[in-house]
Amino acid sequence: MMKKFLNLGLQPLANSYITRNKLNHKEKKFKLIVGFNPKNYLVSILNTIPKEKMFNDKYPYKSSESLTMKKSFKDLSVEIKKKFKPNLILEIGSNDGAFIKNFKKNCVIGVEPCKNLAKITRYKGYKTFSEYWDVSLAKKISKKKKIDVIYSANTLSHIENFSEIFKAVNLSLSDKGILILEDPSLLECIKNVAYDQFYCEHIYVFSAIALKKILDKFNFEIFDIQNTKTHGGSNRYFIKRKKNSFYKLNPNVLKNIVVEKKNGLHKFSTYKRFANKVLLSKKRLIQVVKKIKKNKKRIIGYGATAKSCTVLNYCKINDKQIDFFYDTTSYKISKFLPGSKIEVKKYKKLKKNVTDYVFLGAWNFKKEIFKKERDFIKSGGKFITHIPYPKII
Ligand code: TYD
């Protein structure tokens, strides 16, 4: 039984950017409520949206637009080649190919249900199936040759039906085959009061203790965990069939589990405390913005993320407070953020004569962004961040 702990109010679909001609149309909204399952430690949102409404031919997010993500995928591909020497690799949720492009075309397969993205990798010559990963697709793909490494980053958190995923993985992996999953870490989310990790697409934010329980049911186990910096702190789980004795259990697994338990990720009281911090974060962010607007200063946003959608709608911040967002994603440009209806403009290097304050929507790329905008910062430009608590930096 799920125990509710956080109510983030009525939210629109986070990635449904609005075109100018539809600005006056009524948006569909849903209740964003987050709960904890004391039996399997899983944290998830309670009202899920049909996947076809979110992952279609207009999916805006492209992994290749971030240097941080490109580097992370490149480094991982080098590690995979060295450690596992795979003959065939498959990525579930291959997006625009930021990961698969690090491999030779004849030894990698992409699976990407968003047709606009699958088109990109197919055009570049990578075998890409524009379908949802399931048992029938797995059978089709692995009929002649089994897969040695299946990788999936920031995708499992989007998929409601685990059972189908793991069954499909099991029947398509070779004997030595492994699954690598990478998703935002619940521990980092709790520590950073990053409540914006919850939105319609992020059904789950995983912990190692929850994933372990889920995998158990499908006779899989985690044999290594790497803590990465992407997406505000993620975990990369290396998973094998229990009967696969080819890989040894890395002590990192137990270490992560101990740390998660020390931080109370197995207890409901931890999530109640988190919810109280979220409420304080909301109050403080509203105060920070109010103070700036009282002084008649301009605020713009940086990175029109799905995460921003949760924050802006939860804190009821709109185009009266934030004039516009800069973003590099071509699909988002000249559209409006769902709910708050703040316009997204084509990214330009920040200048003090344009704005004094910038709300950091893409806080997970803070390092990359601060490096890019060092002239703005040197000239006295300020950023507003809500992570780990709202402040001006
Ligand atoms: P992402 O981190 O995927 O967040 P979410 O999953 O919450 O949508 O998206 C990052 C967004 O920030 C994406 O729209 C691109 C944008 N962005 C910039 O505009 N400039 C930058 O320098 C970086 C790093 C990102």
Hetero groups in this structure are: thymidine-5'-diphosphate
Average of per-residue pLDDT values:
95
Computed over alpha carbons, the radius of gyration is 21 Å
Strand order of the largest sheet: 6-5-4-7-8-11-10
- Assign the structural class, choosing from mainly alpha, mainly beta, alpha/beta, alpha+beta, or little secondary structure: alpha/beta
Beta-strand level of the residues, as a percent range? 15-25%
| End-to-end C-alpha gap | 41 Å
Q: Give the ordered list of helices and strands.
A: EEEHHEEHEHEHEHEHEEHHEHEEEHHEE
Low confidence ranges: none
Helix count from the secondary structure assignment: 12
Give the biggest sheet. Answer: 7 strands, mixed
Gross geometry: globular
| Helix percentage | 25-40%
Please count the beta strands (DSSP E, at least 2 residues each). Answer: 17
